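Predict the 3D structure for this chain.
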Amino acid sequence: MLRRFSFALAGAAMLSGAATAQTVPLGADLERFDYPAPVRWFETRSQGHPVRMAFLDWPATATPNGTTVVLLHGKNFCAATWGDTARGLAAAGYRVIAPDQIGFCKSSKPDGYQYSFHAMAALTAALLDGAGAGKVVLVGHSTGGILATRFALLYPARVAQLVLVNPLGLNDTLSEGVPYTDLGRLRAEEAKTDAASIKAYQLRNYYHGDWRPGYDRWVAMLAGQYAGPDGDRVRDAQARLSDMIQTQPVAAELPRLAVPTTLIIGQRDLTAFRATSAPAAQRGRVRTVPQAAEVAVGRIPRARLIRLDDLGHSPQVEAPAVFLRALRSAMTP
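Done. Predicted structure below.
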């Protein structure tokens, strides 16, 4: 009891510090946040809007092996959070491309945009065409796992291998008891988002109570988008993206995957999308990512499951070297 009480006090103090710390405004498109490689741009039109997508393109820093790996970020992440993974892959001879999806990070957030994983997959395919990428190894983390699955379903000939890292969408949380939340309520929730709430959520769900100073950079990145005078544009995009996640899982379509698939799952991940909004009596029915993955691997033809026992939702951030070894193993035929 004493140990748990001490942890609660330490956590409260840490989150109080986060709440009172000054959040630096970084711009709705992260104009004042540095990425770990030069930012490139893919410009096109979508739904009648001119849009541009930021992306990072690392060339191989060892003898090139001819394989391109595409890294797709999650909702609370950006292309920048793949930095350690991308550098490790480049050092092994891979070309690595990491885009910021429309609505996220440095990429466009058009007013009134109808976000869907189909639209994102089509934009990603066009970006890869423009970058001269052929058949790729596709790696999707968290919300990026839904997108990677949708991309592989739409464009199987373009995917040599699919790797899903603690993906959402393997279960339909609405069918498991999470009530549908309309856009107005999602916007109201986003209005309350700040550094303290971001850190509290990630501490519990992503990092199993073990916060490290290196994670603060990613909290500052997210909170900095909300902090400026154009923060409402970010809040609206984030609300629309949450609506996309809750209504467009890929669980029912997993048996249709026709590409070699590996799931890399940090077993200490407590993420269950919007489970806390379910009635208390039903929350136990809403599966966490690791629980959903155990069922999903049996529904995806010839899928493999790599369990990372001591890691949470973001193994590439929490333990970059361990994750890189797992990823390299997943990409080995």
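Residues 1-20 have pLDDT under 50 and may be disordered.
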